[in-house]
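quick one, two chains, predict together pls
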Amino acid sequence: MSEFSPVKALKSSQVQQWHHEADVVVVGLGGAGVSAALTAANAGADVLVLEIAAAGGGTTALSGGLVYMGGDGGTPVQQACGYGDDSKEEMYNYIMACTGENADEAKVRCYVDNSLDHFKWLTENGVEFKPTFFETKAPQPLTDDGLMFTGNEMAYPFNEKCKPIARGHSPKVEGEAGGAFIMEKLIASLEKTSARIHYSARALSMITNDEGEVAGVVARIDGNAQNIRARKGVVLCAGGFIMNPAMVKKHAPKLSKANLPLGNPGDDGTGIMLGVSVGGAAINMHEGFVTLPYYPPETLIKGIIVNAQGQRFINEDCYHGRTGSYAMEQDKGRVYIICDEETFGYPDEFLGITLLDGAETLEELEKVIDVPEGSLVNTIGLYNKYAEQGIDPVFHKHKKFLKPLKPPYAAFDASLKAAGQGGALYPCFTLGGLDTLPTGEVVREDRTVIKGLYAAGRNTAGLPRTGAGYASGLSIADATFFGRQAGASAAAAEEVTL
Amino acid sequence: MSEFSPVKALKSSQVQQWHHEADVVVVGLGGAGVSAALTAANAGADVLVLEIAAAGGGTTALSGGLVYMGGDGGTPVQQACGYGDDSKEEMYNYIMACTGENADEAKVRCYVDNSLDHFKWLTENGVEFKPTFFETKAPQPLTDDGLMFTGNEMAYPFNEKCKPIARGHSPKVEGEAGGAFIMEKLIASLEKTSARIHYSARALSMITNDEGEVAGVVARIDGNAQNIRARKGVVLCAGGFIMNPAMVKKHAPKLSKANLPLGNPGDDGTGIMLGVSVGGAAINMHEGFVTLPYYPPETLIKGIIVNAQGQRFINEDCYHGRTGSYAMEQDKGRVYIICDEETFGYPDEFLGITLLDGAETLEELEKVIDVPEGSLVNTIGLYNKYAEQGIDPVFHKHKKFLKPLKPPYAAFDASLKAAGQGGALYPCFTLGGLDTLPTGEVVREDRTVIKGLYAAGRNTAGLPRTGAGYASGLSIADATFFGRQAGASAAAAEEVTL
């Protein structure tokens, strides 16, 4: 297939034969793709889906399945759990606080305005949420409870700007199978439509007409390059690029340090390159989610996290993604979790966070983690002085997690080390991709629309924009909601001429 | 001119008339452009230069004019100043340490291998360097001395990895006129060649042949859009994008916080967009140089810098660009410089670093900068304990700058505040642009070459890649050296057919 490349489009005038035709061609059958295809098909479009794997699901199916939803009086689940006072403004402010200067305000506004409708759409398509609350601070519930806090809602500095409101909706299934559950339901819905799905189909290059508008896509199906005419549009939903190390090194070099890529093999950046090949702007490419999910056990949050200077650097009760983002920037990646007998607990063994040793005194503890003499004496001395009073004026950890640390102490090593040197695992994925309008239309650098091209999910830069302000559930919310937007826009588009 | 756009190329088949023709068309007459044009012309090419301003100079002419050069036994200036032991390996290691995971190893290697020759080329074109050393730690010499340390050479962690060797070459002119001096000399050299220069000429869009190869450029000259045929190539040397706030917000959002863009009005990103419009990959777009040049006076380096937690966060003797990069990431941008009677001095008034107050005790000082009670007692207590011994095991400041701080103290506010809120000035410029080979050829995402297109300087992602590891002189070294490379490559290229 060497004559095709995702970075160089084919001209429709060079196409000898169209092997397939459809109104809307969707590339990728993960959370974004299935939502796009389902919406376009239900709008009456003739839809063809190209999925690179032998089955649908994408990275959404590998995830825990949290969906960030709320606003305007709350979803029925929020209402049942006491968060019926949610409002659009509160939700908007929180997502904006999360995404900071990287935010796409128009997308945030659009999602907030339609989030309750999105909850309805998901449930109508079989994705159920149980109206019960999961209390523990954890990356996700392992119960079938339907609602939880999913980010930094309760933590500084977010709690200064926004009222803490739970918006993390977890599908009604136990364990980590929430994402698979969502995909199973949505694909089942799609299969009831007229949409055709080609599995093991890899998109190779875009096809453009003489005006540079997108008229189709070349894909390898059954081992052969086939030209697929998209009369109304191609919707790129082919994921991010965390599985393409060269692309990560080039566009998100800081993520090269993180050592556990989260994704499926299809997250190789092809979808982004395809969009760029026809003039799409790729933005936020340097950003990613990097995490250090050192809790549960929740008790460890009552410990402190220090760096090579023996200093704290973050409120330990913030979201694990925020902790990870800060941790990886510490000098030489050196990060230690300090606890005492009362707060001791082992983090998930899988994560490579290792118990170093116990210590009877702070001086001993300094030796255990090899920080300057006197540094922990200072740090823990000050922390304890304020914890006695139930306050943390230095890093603003919530009083729920404050207690003075007393001997004997213990230290875990959560350092991010170079490849092959051991150290903790820092899972990560990318947050950059094609720039799109809230409609799902892909835009050029000057934000003019590329006719015939749409995108959603991690193929785009969507709602979540930073690791330091990530909230679980933002990615699936973004993928499924803006997948629907893209599918609707493509189905309603006028035909792209050849 | 609304029918032309830097993000959409014109097809040569649509060109009715070629208003100008040349072998090599250079866009921009700053450090990169003049070097490209001069080299191409001296190689026998028919060269046409398009400069948007009424005169040449670009951002290089606004700069202090430091050029980072050395390696392999040293330049004559290095030799005269006792740095004749410089080597390619040491220089390579230092630049790689500066650029970290963002580095382009091939470019670094190419520059190191040819740096002494580049010194020769500059001097042959009239850019003289006096063989004397400037000792003071400062952003640049205000004398006509020819050599200085220009970055983090003496500072942790660079001094752990590399032997400190001075490579900052300052042109033989007093004050801040070094950049203007370089441009004056190089433009004078260019004017001796057959190259034609059009001033007040704005590049509007690229022109490509049916293969997508670059065949020319549309420019507005004398108020009219004119089609310019480039037989061998177009060399984009049109600068960075710090003067385009929308582009900064989109591609380098963190730089939106910095409040003093350094550049000329032409640094509006047009050159990068033009390259992207024909398939060029833009990389490192999120990175920039952000600085807090709080010294001179050098004496302040013997003070400490703390954040809202009352903690130090950097060795205060590192390069001001590194300090700035770290400072802007502190909680709420809060940064304070603490000194005592012996180390007191006023930073340059222009920078907006304001004296808050003096204090007789550490407790008073905590109130002056509004940090938690006990925090500065800890920080300064530990700092002083070690400074007495001439060591800083916490942040590794060089012993030359260590002395215990004694009452009375004084505090300056160097915080980065929101627009309109006052605060210190944080000058900045962008470090992202087109991806190029060491030859100056622009490449696509898959690193295949775009025939007919070359670029150099801040139009590209060059040698300097991060603010935290920047060294003064890297940008002009990069612009002038890779400008030469691009000019030579374009002059030697075969003709691009129409």
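The two ends of chain B are 24 Å apart (CA to CA).
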